Amino acid sequence: MLGRAGGSGGMMDFRKLMLVDDEEGVRRFVGLSLEELGYKVETAENGQVALELFDEFRPDVVFTDIKMPVMDGIELLKNIKKRSPDTEVIMITGHGDMDLAIESLKYDASDFITKPINNDVLEFSLDRAKERLTMKLQLKEYTENLENLVEEKTQRIVQLERQNAASHVVAGLSNALSDAAQSVETGGGLFNELPCLVSIHSQYLEIISHNTLFEERLGNMVGANSFDIYSDRDSGGNACPVQQTFATGKGQRSKETFIGKNGEEIPVTVYTAPIPGNDGDVELVLDISVDMTELQRLKDELLTTQYKYQRLFDEAPCYITVQNPDLSIAEANRRFVEDFGEAAGKPCFAYYKHRDEQCSNCLIEKTFKDGQSRQRETVVTTLAGEQKNMLVQSAPIHDASGTIVQAMEMSTDITEIRRLQDHLTSLGIMLGSMSHGVKGMLTSLDGGIYRLESGLQKKDSVRVEAATKTLKSMIGRVKKMVLDILYYAKSRELETDAVDATQFLLDTADIAAAKADAACVEFVRDIPEGLGTLHVDTAAMSAALINFLENGVDASDRKKDGKVELSAQRKGTDLVITIEDNGMGMDPETRDKIFTLFFSSKGKRGTGIGLFISNQTIEQHGGTIEVDSTPAQGSTFVITLPEKPGQVAA
């Protein structure tokens, strides 16, 4: 298992690590282990991303895989050493990459470890990096302080006095350790109360005493060799911590494995302390070992639990985000990342609504204020441009004291449910919303017929012509409404004809021109000759294009210089039709919803069905629509149609 961050670095914090690996699993679980042990960890999926994070994060040690896309580990190592020669870089390699791992040592890599990553090997590599970095910093400090040597010489007397005082303290500690050793030998006192395995070892590497717990776990080992209690040391030549303490005169700390009296392995953390004799030489060694079995079990259980809940979080059949009080996303599940992109640290509205500012009716903000869960429906757009109806719910997340520290937002895709519900109920809604329009058109038809009859009776050609225009206009509107109802009420097969594209567009423009003239909006046609043949359902496609043109007129009729332009050109076998206006434009949220059934930005003047059906018509013909719009500057619709409905537009 890994040791705690910090250690005995002395001259450095040694808490900041960077983990670079293109495997998400490695980044997640190795990073999680390091964070649980107190390290501050940043992760990156390749060398390029790691370099972008490096200057801001400034890690003490970088673990990097060798083989990665975009920038591999060797190139990352070279770049890091150019920027920060003192940063330690440990290479992670597969068994087949040993040549590359050895090559990395030429570029001053401190070590390399192989996959799968063993925690003990990882810790040993960290300890070596820590020692190497500490030595570098010490050497740098000594070099930088060379000019202070003269002053240090003058303070030598003071230092000697301090050392003399320290020697008295050491002597006192030595006596205390001797008393402790005696208490172990007599089988009583403090060490029998400690929940640790305590033993005393002679300079002949022989166990001369141990406490009761030691005997309960390992058996009576008095007289045995010091190294006999270890599972991986079977001779005095393979130095155990006790032998190292005798050899160096310094206490040791290490992770070891003892052999229990029933042959079981017991993971322990060993702490040794030298006990000097009267002559100052190490006479005995005190070994205090902490049984890590329960701690290891709890850590394994914690990791298992965390992994289980991470899987539940990622595999939930909905989008889940955890958000901070500033509305930035702290965490998002896998489904959210797949459809909306990496979102950590960025606001929710930038992903769901493609907005630059906070939504006016933010559920999360309200949940932070009053701690209540809320829900509402909305429409969002994925990275792939797919629009989805979502049921969004918010819920507070409390800490142990009951304070709301974060909030969770869960969004369920109800697009198919809404589509089915709309299909079952929309006919009644549609007929109700159109009833007043039908009544008005019938009234206009009655008036037109009356004026026509009156003109015929009086032989007034002007009155007859005006009445005829009114009747044609009303008949066109009735036809359009009936086609809208038919298209939505049931699937209608296309009735295609081969038509001259230029003439078809000119005829369509003539129908829309009347509304533009009445609204005092300039209507520009840029329809060249020779656009070729187009196979379309003329009634359906004409109605769809007129919808776009009339919406452009409605959007521009409030401007003095209102303008709508219809243009067309051939690109290969495709016909590209562009409808552009300089009207009020749309914000991103409105733009994303314009093809949604019953959505209208016109208020009571719109039914919300026209553009929905126009979009369906163009899709039926195998075409596509691209929308570009800016508030107060206008909108542009680019419609691309294949030569025949069975084809797909390029």
Report on the structure:
With 650 residues, this protein is α+β, with helices and mostly antiparallel strands. The chain has a 5-stranded parallel sheet with strand order 2-1-3-4-5, with helices on both faces. Strands 7-6-10-9-8 form a 5-stranded antiparallel sheet. Strand 1 (16-20), helix 1 (24-36) and strand 2 (40-44) form a beta-alpha-beta unit. Helix 2 (47-57) packs parallel to helix 3 (73-83) and helix 16 (501-518) packs parallel to helix 17. The chain is elongated.
Fold blueprint:
Layout lengths: L15 E5 L3 H13 L3 E5 L2 H11 L3 E5 L7 H11 L4 E6 L4 H9 L4 E4 L4 H26 L4 H6 L1 H30 L11 E6 L4 E4 L1 H7 L22 H8 L4 E7 L5 E12 L5 E10 L1 H23 L3 E5 L5 E4 L1 H7 L8 H4 L10 H8 L3 E8 L5 E12 L5 E10 L1 H44 L2 H29 L7 E4 H18 L3 E5 L6 E4 L1 H19 L6 E9 L2 E8 L6 H6 L16 H11 L3 E7 L3 E8 L9
Parallel strand pairs: 1-2, 1-3, 3-4, 4-5, 17-19
Antiparallel strand pairs: 6-7, 6-10, 8-9, 9-10, 11-12, 11-15, 13-14, 14-15, 16-18, 19-20, 20-22, 21-22
What key attributes describe this structure?
650 residues, alpha+beta, five-stranded parallel β-sheet, five-stranded antiparallel β-sheet, 22 strands
Helix-and-strand structural type: alpha+beta
Radius of gyration: 40 Å
- Percent in helix: 40-55%
Mean pLDDT across all amino acids: 79
Short description:
The protein is an alpha+beta fold. It is built from 19 helices and 22 strands.
